[in-house]
Request: fold
Amino acid sequence: MTPPALSSVRPSVVIVGAGPRGTGLLERIAANAPELYGDTPLDLHLVDPHPPGGGRIWRADQSSLLWMNSTAEDVTMFTDESVELDGPVRPGPSLAEWARAVRAGEIAVEPGLADAIAELGPRDFAGRRLQSAYLNWVYERSVAALPPTVAVHEHLRTAVRVSGSRDGRQQVWLDGRPTPLLADLVVLALGHLEAELPPEQRELSEFAARHGLTYLPPAFTADSDLSALRPGEPVLVRGFGLAFIDLMVLLTEGRGGTYTAGADGQLTYRPSGREPVLHVGSRRGVPYHSKIGYEPAGERPPLPRFFGPEQVDALLARPGIDFRRDVWPLIDKELGFAHYHRLFTAHPGRTRMNWPDFEEKYAAADPAGAALQALVSAAVPDPADRLDLDALDHPLAGVRYPDGDALQEGLRGYIEADLARRHDPEHSPDLAVFLALLSVYGQLVRIGDRGPWWHGFFSYLASGPPGPRLHQLLALSRAGVVRFLGADTTVTADERRGVFRAESASVPGESVEARALVEARLPEPTVEHTRDALLRALYADGAAATPSPELLKSRGDPQLLAVAAADARILDRSGRPHPRRFALGPHTDARSGGAFARPRTNAPAFRQNDATARALLTFLRERAAVPVPVSAASVPRTAPTPEDSHVADQ
Reply:
């Protein structure tokens, strides 16, 4: 049955990007609509070439070997009582609770997921296909929660341009569609984007082309063509974070290798013979810290304490905030407070002072002063129990090995020690620091983006791989399939020999040559150099503001889309918010930790989604005086557009 034609005067919103961020915004629109919009008709257009819910990054059609890096109980798409928002809390299941409901027959999923769901416990790491199913279910639930007068249209295309005056309806042009979508409001929820190569990477790519080499620039690993990485040949890898873990999995198990566990639990890797040899290095020279492998217990640190709304208000009132000078000392003190609160309350035998006395002196000490360090030295006798963020960020600083084999042994010892510590509740101050990092991230959203160093530091401490992945890495190292390069790794192009060469500070005088180089990381978010046509056009038209050239030079930041902190409206280069255009996600200077989050952590993305949803609905309500000739009851909740949409009628 063909649905009735929609009147051109029906209010409409176009959301570009239907992955987790777009889905989260949809959930907040559904939650706030009864209060702010009532039963007025509305068309919601979702534009994304990938199916809604998971989007590109969390799509179902990727390797079943790829996991999430959070446990099932630590993943949710729903608000709870911890989230500071003006709209209503609408609780929903975490990934673990959703899987439990599936097993109980309360939620139906495709049969192919039954085995994975049956085996998934709350502390397990789900495969990405399973997360895709959860996100799809969240999307369908959010659509079902919309008022019956709201129609959702899915456009499986790419948006390439937005036009229209500040005071009029916007036109959203889609690839391959001759006429634009008309919208009262447009929201960009684009997620992670590809970017043009910066100068150094472009030179390496051109060098590889001249010499018949393989160069894989930064990309989402599941999208990379790894077929050129040949069995047995050395491959240089720059980057030791989660993109490397995915690369490691796809080039080992993904090529037929297997693991066996010995009586002591140690893994042994059985090669298939199709693996290359991965030589991996980075600035730190070590992988991200393992996910913590024990349950939270006991008293949590009362956060925020030294970096909360009051301190952020004071920072925002000051001109010319410098991150290292003004913000970092407060973060350092906040993380230290969480660490020592846990140490004193859970492990008092390792301290020489009672907590109230320490807390009073700690609160009075200058965050960057010598008095604080003296206090910690006096109250915490074992240096291993003291928090040293600089040492954490530079774990191999000053460490030198006589040769590459000694480096391999040393790095295996480092990883083994990290796994032991992150799975031992005797080191529970680490968990307190993790919780403080989440709190800090939530406060930094108000200040705006603080540059790539902070995001990298946060990910290194708080967003590392599951412990089992590091056990696999150790097995691969013992098997010689992975070789560690060390800290401060540099790669040069040797024109004379026609190879890439890697060196590090950890083994002076040694180098590794290879005919393949992989940049194991996502492209930096950037407005000016993104490959996304829509975002580049906004920048070219002056509708998107990015950090000034002086700020970019001093901080080394990528150019990000500037948005209003209050509601995510896009700012122009004079700082004026666009009344009809919004943006959420990693390409903005209000980028948050992720589109989904750990429950009960006041997730920044949930707060942003709620504020934006309320701004959208308020705008539409105030302009709802135009009569709508089409009966609200005649418009289905989801309406297909045959030439470019795929929607299931409800």
Notes: Residues 211-288+466-519 form a domain with the FAD/NAD(P)-binding domain fold (CATH 3.50.50.60). The chain has 18 helices and 21 strands. The CA atoms of residues 17 and 190 lie 5 Å apart. The radius of gyration is 26 Å.
